[in-house]
TrEMBL record:
GO terms of biological process kind: 'de novo' pyrimidine nucleobase biosynthetic process; pyrimidine ribonucleotide biosynthetic process
Identification of the protein by name: Orotidine-5'-phosphate decarboxylase
Pathway per the UniProt entry: Pyrimidine metabolism; UMP biosynthesis via de novo pathway; UMP from orotate: step 2/2
Domain of life, per lineage: Bacteria
Length: 292
């Protein structure tokens, strides 16, 4: 062990302290308008600072959607750097929703940008895709792990049009006969199991993205199976605006429920700067009741 606290341990502590709500930071142009902010880099920065102020101390996890900062070019990235720093300084675990994927050496470079301690874009975890093969994320998985960072690999995403690809059945490889979503999920579970031999911990540091709107069984994921050990972190967008509700959490995720991070963006952000703190507090209570 190199003395860093694994992401999975920090996530488990965030669950214990604040429950499983994750506030999505998605400064859509229409929301900036509601918040009285211009659609500019300054606007997304001010919007983000207020969201962080409302989230800090109430919730444990923040998920900035990087696309809404990238819209504003270099100045948008400068705003995001400031927000990542402020959020982490305020004690929030930050998952950068960047969805990067490429050949292994290029994904590793994305990992250096977002997960290197001290880098200007440092987050606690990032979203990635393995559609160029599970081997393409091996290198970034090792460096994330060494830095105590986390990864969330797209498996069964919330958008309905993803089903055709994610439910497709593999023809070759040791996972022939599995759906794409299942092969990715089992690859991630296997990675956590191998790490657990060395590191222990109740929750792994590598997770998957399962949309809260998805019937996971149709994607080949058995939600009645024995829960994985260590537990599997599941980043679950789709609550709120996309239609899933806290009461769906156990129903949808079954034996994966204990690792679920329930992510909501527009449904909270739409409350505006005056209402967001109350909206967050209400949702925390509802998720708490749903998970028991
Ligand atoms: O499967 C996925 C993966 C990521 N997302 C992202 O989450 C938020 C959802 O926003 P809402 O306003 O709560 O609908 C957004 O950043 C997506 O890019 C997802 O929706 N589904």
């Amino acid at each position: 062990m190199n003395g860093v606290t694994p992401f999975g341990e920090r996530l488990a502590a965030a669950f214990d302290a604040h429950g499983r709500l994750c506030v999505g930071l998605d400064p859509h142009a229409s929301l900036l308008d509601v918040w009285g902010q211009p659609d500019s880099a300054e606007g997304v920065r001010e919007f983000g600072l207020r969201v962080i102020e409302a989230a800090a101390g109430r919730v444990g996890i923040l998920k900035p959607q990087v696309a809404f900062f990238e819209r504003h070019g270099a100045a948008g990235y400068a705003a995001l750097e400031r927000l990542l720093r402020e959020a982490r300084d305020a004690g929030l675990l930050v998952i950068a929703d960047v969805k990067r994927g490429d050949i292994g050496s290029s994904v590793a470079a994305y990992g250096e940008a977002w997960l290197t301690p001290g880098s200007s874009l440092e987050a606690d975890a990032m979203t990635i895709s393995a559609y160029q093969g599970l081997g393409s994320i091996e290198q970034v998985s090792r460096s994330a792990d060494a830095a105590g960072k986390g990864l969330f690999v797209l498996a069964a995403t919330s958008n309905p049009e993803a089903a055709a690809i994610q439910r497709a059945v593999l023809q070759q490889s040791s996972r022939a006969g599995s759906t794409v979503a299942q092969a990715i999920t089992h690859g991630v579970i296997g990675w956590n199991e191998r790490r657990a031999d060395a590191a222990g911990g109740d929750l792994g540091s590598m997770g998957v993205v399962f949309g809260a709107t998805v019937d996971l069984r149709l994607a080949g994921i058995d939600t009645d199976a024995e829960p994985p050990r260590p537990g599997l972190p599941v980043l679950a967008p789709g609550f709120g605006h996309q239609g899933a509700e806290p009461g769906d959490l156990r129903l949808r995720f079954g034996s994966y429920a204990s690792g679920v991070i329930a992510s909501e963006s527009r449904s909270l952000l739409g409350a505006g700067p005056e209402g967001i703190a109350d909206a967050i507090a209400r949702r925390i209570d509802q998720y708490g009741a749903a998970i028991g």
